[in-house]
Design goal:
heterodimer; A: mainly alpha; 6 strands; globular; B: 487 residues; Alkaline Phosphatase, subunit A; nine-stranded mixed sheet; two-stranded antiparallel sheet; 13 helices
Chain lengths: 755, 487
């Protein structure tokens, strides 16, 4: 398959416009948004038995009338109808809320004149690895070659390589979620070998922080939270599943296995503890615990949630559209939705559990054999049951029951009319959607068949969706901007050949995730400076052509982790349960009936943010304000906003004020003049050396505020009392308070909020 | 090169492209030319309202400039407040006829009861105003503004439990994840006041304690950008999360810090050229202004006695519904686009007489006071006030004797509207003798939302946002404007 980039149409400055229209690029978007609701895939809503998304139906002779006559707009009924001034004839019909623009009318006519050629939606065709184009000497790998090809068409030159400080900060945050230390920066600066950067990348990919950073990303799609959601929203015990995710990323588990274990680990022969725990992915959905709820309504909802989440995360499809009717745009029928539903419907589970705490059945003791061995040992050591009670409780807390998949009930599945749990239609067997990739002939299909169908290397979506989502993590925007949807309504890829090349290469590599990430961060494309000239900003404001380095705001977790890290507060340690960190007073006021907020203390306050506890109906506001989803439902793509409320968080939230205080303490104990201390702090947070003017601004501010705090001793005391950690008592308070305000400035710098 | 159709037909487009101009046509003409949903084109950044804040649509003939939504969480009982059924007295204690109930489902709280006995309202009704509007004795102060009120008795909704029903009312969908109505308004029309958010939320608890919880998701922006989420003005601690400087940093020090920060960020912008840095500088300045404007708006100390009186005795209590109504008026004065008050505790499963009386004592005077206050300031002529809950309540009793209350009922319930563009002293729709089914002019939640959007000058079918490949809107694929209640 060959695709032509769409950017030609979007970006200015191009000498020519492509003469021939492409069905996928220009025509289908019009049909999809204006016509297919009544003349598309949904058989129940289809008017006049006409499908405009299928050649056969559109070309057919209907008693002498042909909707589309290739090459002949004048003879095509479609053209007559879209241009008609007669209210009864014009299409789309008035009152439907849609109409064609003049330009859209013209495109449809031109397409018919050019032969009305249909194409299969690009993402539903198997990707093909094209020959890597010649990049005229620029770049180091295939990514650079494809990217170079596109930006040169616009007449752009690439940016030079980013300064080493900018680069190591970018790649450290991208790969581990934390900035580099000054020592790491200096070691990189002093290594002048060709391999210096590659060595940094390998060190970061080998760090266990990598798994934490990747897990924080994966939790959004998997809608991981620490409570059951809905009305009562009491705590669950799913964190062992999160442990498994971190370990899996760190072990560089091949993606095909990663998918298979999560969807169907329980169905693998002699399934291990880990394989079973991995299926917790399907049980991270919310559970209804409100009195009066109707059991079957909610049990049905959970099964739907599993199907929809699977579709969004792994296939980039909005399967939810097919729960009430055939999908309007993509080839998934309502029947097929319920065939998938059948695969996720074998659990012996309840739809409603009043005031549920902990795990709902089916569940699995985390690291069961280790738990049982430890209990046995304890029984030998302490024969008295009463005396060992406390120790057993500890063991149980470290090995909670995890909600997992276990097929135990042979339920019949039905098409549910309009998606209503109590309106059963035709009975359906488990099955796979037919339109994407060959499906197994087996009669008794289950989740393991589903997983294997996705990762057999032939499915056109699995690899594309994953590489595109990872690309978005490192470049800010996916090659397909709508990373959550690669169906017919998706955005046209900025670099279609590159996306396909990467998708095929990823499968060929044995679904090697770290290798793919290394390919991205080693590329010259990624390593470019983020400096942007006016010309490029004007013509390519969103950097879709990648003629400069990616510059994006840190994600919610990274911002908090960075502040804890530079202030020396961060308490590392892989995995474990979630803890309650600082919350604004009164956050739980409206849900207080269901429990009072009790904050944790000590080291638990300073763990990486992916271990902060999430009660879904009252998720931490300082995180939500930086676009972390509340995890009530699957979210595949985070928005990146820039609001005044974010400024208030970073200025005033106790986490950041405490971090400023402890950061000041680090600066102070470094010794030297105030300017030297501040210069060290600046470098600590930005990785680079402040220039003279920058330093002057900070030092003068410091001096003004030292004066202020000398006169206002109480203010200094108050500021230094923020947060539960203490600063060393022997340090001079006015100077410490003033340094804390400098730290507050540094932690709010746009350069520090971004990477 | 062959001349293409596109080149011949779209000279402006081609010219723009060859001149190296980005394709950003004049925003208004673009909208007129595009029959497409506005949001699908991600035009958010192209449009600005009168104060220069981002907006997505240009309202057409708006009747309403701002909305005050008074959300009564839990589901107020329609037949005890606004939809009198005096005829039910003779049915007292009798089983609700099967023919009336039909196939409607009931919750598992009452489906376990052996019987569903009719419980007539224990409250008297009277006629008020020139219009003779019928109001329960629990709403004495509403009588004074009866001719401003429009009562819609034929509301219908879908869900039968609180969480899905309130989510549906707020977002047009039962499951979490879609934007709330206020977020749609913020996204569509932007803010008017540059020192305050476009969508502000206040909550108050029932003085009876214990109620269905409220959660921030109800005013969340869902898949719309987070800046359109409702900003909650809180009753304890900071009025807005993290608004206050920490102890030890006063306003002067904050200004000093921000000056340094601004100077450094401007230098960074000069070096890197990323416009996002300029925007960040602006957000910090807005945050600084909010640090002054928000406490000022929450400070009611200069409100004169005669105004305070309108809102009743509880107005002095921080966090009371009465106080929130007064703050709502102050927000309306400051042109906040969408103001939403949530009051908890309308879930009268038991002790109806006692608990509903208390609920009304806490809320009815402030509602009437708010309407009067808006009116005397000339604000009611471009403000819409909406009052109501997520569903209604059953005509049959839950629990026996003195303990009797009413269960959830989505089949019919009542909303009250007042203000700009709305007929005053008007009743719309009708329910059957049992107050169980709508018999005339049903108004679905989607219809109410469509009407609200219409009054703001927005076509609810055209304000869309593309998410996961679909153009979403507040009213899903439903909703029609209820023309009969428009003045």
């Amino acid at each position: 398959m060959r695709l032509k980039p769409f950017l030609l149409l979007l970006l200015g400055g191009l000498p020519t416009v492509k003469a021939e229209l492409s069905y996928n690029r220009e025509v289908l978007p019009i049909l999809a948004s204006k016509c297919l609701a009544c003349h598309g895939t949904d058989a129940a809503k289809r008017e006049a038995k006409l499908r405009l998304d299928e050649q056969e139906s559109a070309y057919a002779d209907r008693d002498g009338i042909r909707v589309i006559v290739p090459g002949k707009p004048g003879e095509s009924e479609l053209v007559r109808r879209i241009l008609s001034h007669d209210e009864d004839e014009v299409m789309p019909p008035p009152g439907e809320g849609v109409s064609l623009t003049k330009r859209e009318q013209e495109i449809l006519q031109q397409w018919i004149r050019e032969g009305a050629r249909y194409e299969r939606h690009w993402a539903f065709q198997a990707p093909v690895k094209d020959e890597v184009p010649d990049a005229g000497g620029w770049g180091v790998n295939a990514i650079d070659a494809f990217v170079h090809q596109e930006f040169s068409k616009a007449g752009f030159e690439p940016q030079q390589e980013a300064a080493k400080e900018e680069l190591i900060r970018r790649v450290s945050i991208d790969l581990t979620g934390l900035p580099p230390t000054i020592e790491e920066v200096e070691s990189f600066l002093s290594d002048e070998s060709e391999e210096a950067y590659g060595k940094v990348v390998d060190r970061l990919l080998g760090s266990s922080r990598y798994g934490e950073r990747m897990a924080a990303w994966w939790l959004d799609g998997a809608r991981y939270g620490d409570s059951h959601g809905y009305d009562n929203d009491l705590e669950n015990a799913q964190w062992p599943w999160r442990n498994w995710i971190i370990e899996s990323f760190n072990a560089n588990q091949p993606y095909d296995q990663f998918v298979t274990w999560q969807l169907a680990g329980d169905l693998l022969p002699n399934a291990s503890d880990d394989q079973i725990v991995a299926t917790g992915f399907n049980r991270n959905h919310r559970i209804q615990t409100e009195g009066g709820a109707i059991e079957e309504e909610w049990r049905t909802e959970y099964v739907m949630d599993r199907v929809e989440t699977m579709g969004s995360v792994f296939l980039g499809l909005t399967l939810s559209c097919a729960r009430c009717h055939d999908h309007k745009y993509d080839p998934v029928s309502q029947k097929e939705f319920y065939q998938l539903f059948a695969m996720f419907d074998g659990l012996n589970e309840k739809g409603f559990i009043n005031n549920l705490r902990g795990s709902a059945e089916p569940r699995h003791r985390y690291r069961k054999s280790a738990f049982e061995a430890a209990v046995r040992k304890l029984e030998e050591e302490i024969p008295d049951a009463k005396a060992r009670e406390g120790r057993v409780k500890e063991l149980e807390a470290a090995h909670p029951h995890v909600m997992v998949m276990r097929d135990e009930v042979d339920r019949k599945a039905f098409v549910l009319k309009r998606g209503q749990y109590d309106d059963k239609g035709e009975e359906v067997p488990p099955g796979l959607p037919q339109a994407f990739s060959p499906t197994p002939a087996d009669e008794n299909l289950n989740r393991l068949h589903l997983a294997r169908w996705m990762v057999d290397g032939k499915h056109p979506l699995t690899s594309r969706v994953f590489v595109n989502r990872l690309w978005e993590q490192f470049f800010g925007t996916g090659i397909v901007k709508s990373s959550e949807n690669l169906g017919r309504q998706s955005d046209w890829p900025s670099h279609p050949e590159l996306l396909d090349w990467l998708a095929v290469d990823f499968v060929e590599s044995g679904w090697d995730v770290k290798r793919f990430i290394r390919l991205m961060v080693m590329s010259r494309t990624y390593r470019q400076s983020a400096v942007v000239e006016e010309e490029k900003l004007r013509r390519d404001p969103d950097n879709r052509l990648l003629s400069r380095g990616p510059r994006t705001r840190l994600q919610a977790e990274m911002l908090r982790d960075q502040a804890l890290f530079v202030s020396g507060l961060l308490v590392e340690g892989l995995g474990g349960p979630s803890w309650w960190v600082y919350q604004p007073a009164g956050l739980w006021l409206e849900v207080e009936k269901r429990g009072t907020f009790v904050q944790d203390h000590g080291e638990k306050l300073y763990r990486r943010s992916l271990y902060s506890r999430i009660r879904r109906t009252v998720a931490p506001p300082s995180m939500l304000l930086f676009d972390m989803p509340s995890r009530e439902m699957c979210t595949v793509k985070r928005t990146l906003t820039n609001t005044p409320l974010q400024a208030l968080v970073l200025m005033n939230e106790v986490t950041y004020v405490e971090a400023a205080k402890k950061f000041a303490e680090r600066m102070m104990t470094k010794g030297g003049t105030p300017a030297e201390r501040i210069a060290w702090g600046f470098r600590c947070a930005t990785s680079r050396v402040a220039d003279a003017e920058e330093l002057e601004i900070l030092v003068k501010g410091y001096e003004r505020r030292v004066e202020h705090y000398r006169k206002n001793g109480k203010a200094a005391d108050d500021l230094l009392a923020q947060g539960e950690s203490k600063v060393a008592g022997y340090l001079p308070k006015p100077e410490m308070a003033a340094l804390a305000t400098v730290a507050n400035v540094i932690l709010n710098l746009d350069e520090v909020i971004n990477r | 090169m062959k001349e293409s159709k596109l080149e011949r037909e779209s000279p402006a487009l081609i010219e723009a492209m060859s001149a190296g101009e980005p394709l950003l046509p004049d925003r208004r003409s673009f909208l007129q030319a595009s029959g497409h949903g506005f949001g699908a084109m991600a035009l958010g950044s192209l449009l600005f309202d009168e104060e220069g804040k981002a907006a997505t649509v240009v309202p057409e003939n708006p009747r309403v400039r701002r909305v005050i939504s008074l959300f009564m969480s839990g589901g107020p009982s329609q037949m005890d407040l606004l939809d009198p059924k005096p005829g039910l007295e003779k049915e007292r204690g009798k089983e609700l006829p099967k023919s009336v109930r039909g196939e409607q489902r009931i919750t598992t709280m009452t489906s376990v009861q052996k019987s569903l006995p009719v419980l007539p309202s224990p409250f008297k009704f009277g006629q008020h105003g020139q219009s003779g509007l019928e109001l329960s004795e629990l709403l004495p102060h509403w009588g004074e503004v009866a001719d401003d009120l429009c009562v819609v008795r034929s509301m219908q909704t879908e869900a039968i439990n609180h969480d899905p029903a309130i989510t549906f009312f707020q977002t047009g969908f039962q499951l979490a994840g879609r934007p709330s109505v206020g977020s749609w308004v913020s996204y569509g029309l932007g803010a008017i006041n540059r020192d305050l958010p476009a969508y502000v939320v206040l909550t108050s608890r029932s003085t009876a304690g214990g109620a269905q919880p409220l959660y921030s998701r109800l005013w969340d922006s869902g898949f719309l950008p987070a800046e359109h989420s409702g900003v909650k003005l809180r009753n304890t601690g900071d009025p807005v999360y993290f608004l206050k400087n920490p102890p030890g940093i006063d306003r002067g020090v904050r200004r000093d810090i921000l000056d340094d920060l601004g100077a450094l960020n401007r230098r960074r912008h000069a070096a890197v050229g990323d416009p996002a840095i300029e925007s960040r500088i602006a957000q910090y300045e807005m945050a600084f202004r909010m640090q002054a404007s928000v406490p000022e708006l929450a400070d009611i100390s200069k409100e004169p006695e005669h105004v305070m009186k309108l809102y009743g005795p509880n107005v002095g209590k921080q966090g009371s519904f009465a106080r929130n109504c007064l703050v709502a008026r102050r927000l309306a004065e400051r042109d906040v686009r969408f103001i939403q008050l949530f009051h908890m505790g309308w879930d009268q499963h038991d002790k109806l007489k006692e608990t509903l009386s208390r609920q009304c004592r806490d809320t009815e005077q402030p509602v009437a006071g708010l309407i009067q206050d808006l009116k005397q300031r000339g604000l009611l002529k471009d403000t819409l006030v909406v009052w109501g809950g997520e569903f209604g309540r059953t005509t049959y009793a839950q629990k026996p004797g003195d303990k009797a209350g009413r269960d959830h009922h989505p089949g019919c319930f009542t909303q009250m509207l007042a203000g700009a563009g709305i007929k005053g002293g008007h009743v719309h729709g009708e329910t059957d003798d049992y107050c169980y089914n709508v018999t005339r002019d049903p108004v679905h939640v989607h219809d109410l939302n469509a009407t609200l959007m219409h009054l703001l000058g927005v076509d609810h079918e055209k304000l869309t946002f593309r998410f996961q490949g679909r153009d979403y809107r507040l009213t899903d694929v439903h909703g029609k404007v209820v023309k009969e209640i428009l003045s």
